[in-house]
Amino acid sequence: MVIPSCSNSRCPCCSNFCLDDHLQSHHISSSTSTSCFDFALDDYLQSHHISSSTGTSCFDLVLDFLTELEKCDPFADLFLEYPKKQVRLLKTIFLYVKNCRRKGNHKALLEHDQEDTGNIMSESLRRNIICFSIQDVVVKMFHDLYSAYLLYKKIVSPNFGIIIGALTRSEGNIKMFLETDIKKSCAIIFFDCYSPEDPQLLMDLIESLSDSLEELLCEWRLWDTISCQLKLLRNLIGLATMQGFEHTQLANLSTYTAVMAGRLISVCRFGRHEIQVLDQINLLDLQVRETCIHVLTASKKQPRSSYALALKENEDLGVVQFIGSLHDYLYDLLESYASFQAQVKDQMLKLHRGIKYLSILLKQKEKLRDEIQDLIGVMVCDAGILIFSLSINEIKEGLPKETDLGLFHLHKVLKYLVAEVAHNYQLTSPYSSFNYPRSNELGCMEFFLENLKELARCDDANDSIVFLQDRIQRIEKDLEFLRHVLVNIKEQRYQNGKLQAFWSQVMEATYKAELLIDTTLVGDKCEDSLDVVARDINLLKIEALEIQNGQIQRVNKTSIHIPSQLIAAIHHEDLVGLDDKVKSIIDRLRSGSKQLDFVPIVGMPGLGKTTLAKKVYIADSVMSHFHVRCWCCVSQMYSMHSLLVQLLCSISSENPDKYLKKNENDLAENLRQVLLRRRYLLVLDDLWDVEAWNLLEKSLPNNANGSRILFTSRLQNLSSQFRPDSKSYHLCPLTDEESWTLLQKKLFFKEGCPPTLSEVGFQIAKTCRGLPLTVVLVGGILATTTQDRWEEVAKCLNFIVLDNKGCKKTLELSYSHLPDYLKPCLLYFAAFQEDEVINVRRLLWLWIAEGLVQQAKGKSLEESAYDYLMALISRSLVVVTKQRTMGGAKACQLHDLVHEYCVEKAKEESFVCVIHILKDSFSLAGLSNHYRVRAHNTGELKIWELMLIFPNLRSLLLSGLVGNYYLTEKEELGTLLPKLLRVLDLGRYNYVPMEVASLVHLRYLVLHGTRSIPSAIENLSRLETLIVEHPFDQIELPNTIWNLKRLSYLCTTDRTRGFIFPAENLEVSPNLVHLDTLNLTIIEPFSQSLQKILAKLPTIRRLKCSCKRSQPARRLTFATRSSKEILEFDCMRRLESLHLIELKGYEFKFPLNLKKLTFIFNYQPWSEISTIGKLPNLEVLKLRSESFVGEEWVMKEGEFPKLRFLELSWLSIRNWTATSDNFCHLEKLVVCNCLKLEEVPACLAECLTLEMIEVKWCRESVANSVRQIQQEQMDSGNEVLKIIIKNCHETNCSEAEEISSNCSEAEEICSEREFILSHYT
Questions:
Q1: Within 10 Å of residue 701's Cβ, how many Cβ atoms?
Q2: Is the pLDDT score of 918 beyond 70?
Q3: What is d(CA 757, CA 747) in angstroms, rounded to the nearest whole number?
Q4: Percent helix, strand and coil across the chain, each to the nearest 5
Q5: DSSP state at residue 1259
Q6: Which residues, 6+ apart, have CB-to-CB distance to 605 below 8 Å?
């Protein structure tokens, strides 16, 4: 019967370990004979004494067997996880029943032996019967599964469905057993017996019960509450056991916990649950909470050294587990009762924060002294007592006084503990002298004073501030005076050491005052420190009066004025002297060997390597020669994942989100498939070593068809590492004449240089030593310098450029010439990665939130911020990478040398700390006390460590590891957010930490992947910008959103997934009177609530509106609707830009001031477009993806009087008729993927304002009509018109219809959202 085998089923000598080996090791034959199987199984079970009620071998055997079954199928674990949980639950119940003791006095029972012996025996017999029953269920499960396994092995083509069937039967049997036998026995097991003397048995039972129920009830919010309560009770028992409590001391707690477990089992219908029954269970009723408080109070009386000993010896850290369950329970409490009063909620958040502190400190036990560990242990008990003493009814009305005092005491001791930890790491105290940001100090002071004025106007100031108002007002008044003095001495201080020292003292006192007042606003008591700073400021005021009496000459206040010449049209720099090299490189790319070849462009920084590569990349002859072109920027810091994403995005022009979710192997295979059997050009820009190529090489097929790799590098010898005989193109410096030509183009465009400036201008160009970047930067300086001071600039340059550092010295000169208000805006680019393309609007909103922008008269803050950016662009410090439809910057970046300079300068001025790889945060302890931190690889980041290093942090910008698309709390973020944050970008952490709700200074918040916003968002009364990146679904807003009076920008990065506003109680909700930009989702069927919501958003300028339907609806048109509904946007008097997405079959009313309109998937008939044509101020119209249906569009006379840009994409239009007056202001026309369109209107030849026509993926007849229009324009003397024609071919009507039909089928298969993102994001 027994097959000889290694007794150890995982012996390393057995290389071919399989399930049969495992069974043989358990003395069970894998014979296909059923009778042999039965005999072997029975023999095995008997040999392991399964017939008695004491053994657990059958449970272990089944668990091992289920684990081995996972090897049978790649997806087996999906089906086996829950059966494992069921078996573990049965095992823990078995052990609990076997070891529990009947309640009552055992001695008294013995005295009445004659009467009660039968009862005792019957009680023991009942428990034995339960144990036998549990074992019997498990043995039958193994019998059924093993029979299925034998059948699975016997079949020629194994079908895992056989095993799944057996699993399903076993699950059903266990559920039935739990619902009948175990449920009937609950009174005996849990109510009439004491729990076993070993607390671990009860803890194991609670854990396995929690796991099993979670599988069934995880979809209900109620389960979170039950789970939190179960874990809290379990971990309290674990904490007490760890501290050496005797079983008798835990009798009441263990009994109550066992009773609660029994109640859960008795009411939970495994698999056919009734949630309303569970709703009646409160695991932490008053009696249980009183028992828990008793245990924790006794715990505090334990010998103090027991905590330190336990922390050192117990690797499981029962204290950590208990404090973690306290944290989860309190979090659940806050989430469950959103109706708490604001003051109570604030106190609860403080308690939540305190518990998080304790959790973090516990994890650093090796760095703490024994007495500190003892104190932490006591604090853990105090925190538990505080939480167990909470009553929901009391919480709703306000915390009791004793609870409030306990909370105050907890925070006071926590402050001491944090200070102790900071001392151990020799970190800076939050209130000691510190390095404050040095750029635009007067602007920062102005920002602080504006905040103080706003604080004085605030109606809902908290109690902590009200009694300090007099002191704060005195500080404000004194600082206003000091600011006036600083303005007067701004220039003199550089020549006067005493004035410079006075300046520094005033600024440090200002920053300290701001820190202390803001800290008071978050609930910390800083009155004494604030008094000290107030006295310092008053003494400085006395010194300032002496300075004033010294009759120092007044210097005019610097006004925020952008010179008109800076607000120039954005244009691409066109460097000189590259034409021959462009032609030579193109010739080499198109000719030569059919094998994969390399074309290197090398040269020193600033020579224009990237510019040359771009000119080659977009050349028509290159675009026509290569089937596929792709580009990526490598730089010094890169990853394989980021390079592959860049390459794939450049090929398909798709949103990076599509690729960020994939791993490197999938991306590499995607790239290989795209390039396979195609001639491709791959550009690697800014290459520093051959390793990047080694990473990519395996993904690139050598099709022997003339594919090429073009790369740029500063390193002269890098090309030899690719191929020894590779010939590089060495970029040489410009000649003096070429430098002068470039400088003139930069300063005067097509106009010539005035003769009076020719000589000095040429000398300035000559000192640039042939570096194009230096020429461009110097041009930026001269553009803001009066012509009579060019000689001074020439002298400065002559001295600077003779230095070997060249460009960086010129950058220093450019920086010094910037007005003070622009310097921090430029340094802010240091927070972004090298070569990162930056969204302009996001950048402007960040500047505003940081207080870097002062509002110009007659302009909004965003308009003023945009003027700042344009000033930096005009000085050639910032480069525009993407333009908006009608001009203006949409995205920008820095040249790598400019970025390097900004990083160095930002570090020098304590402006921002950039962290790339953070293996040990405490290695940063020597850094200055920065206000801003940008952490790039946050997969290794612990934010709480940053809090100790940078205690006064105001801005925290995170970005996840490339390739880790979503990071969650379980991945040990260690979130404990700095309380004074104004700016927070959570990067790729797809959850909202509860601590966010306590950040009362927050102005800018970026979340990731969330589906809803918590009601506690109302605490963020200063919030201006809320962005959700990559939302999983539409985002539901709470009713409290209406309380965010300063909210200005409410956006997502997915135009089809916006925010759903609550429709309840709109009549009594305040308006959002500052909201400017919104991504809105409306729910179908529409109602009057939509109009009411829009009426409460009177200041919206930019609106993206999408629809969430209860049922999928495709190609819904007016004809399919029973009645027409009208969506009225005409109440929005300030609306300028509107996107309408998937609003199928509705009519619209638009405001007359609308300037930009985009339609996507709206399926409107062409007859409805007249409503749009009558808009008097419409300048931009984009009709995309079946936004209008039908084959003919006839434009009526007088329509579109101010239209400047028109786009038609993915439409089924065939005939398009118009007159010249429809295009009297048209500047650009884009036609893309209109497969049926025969031609564009010929009257476009009469449009004198037309500058560009772009046609892609249309019929050849459309391309011919465009060429004819260009020819007629040229015949009329208009040589401005540029045409771009790509991928146009002759297609007959039937082919067009077939293509269109195929597109429709693909559209049915793919979601419309993906379709939109693929083409238009």
A1: 18
A2: no
A3: 12
A4: 55, 10, 35
A5: B
A6: 714, 773, 807, 896, 897
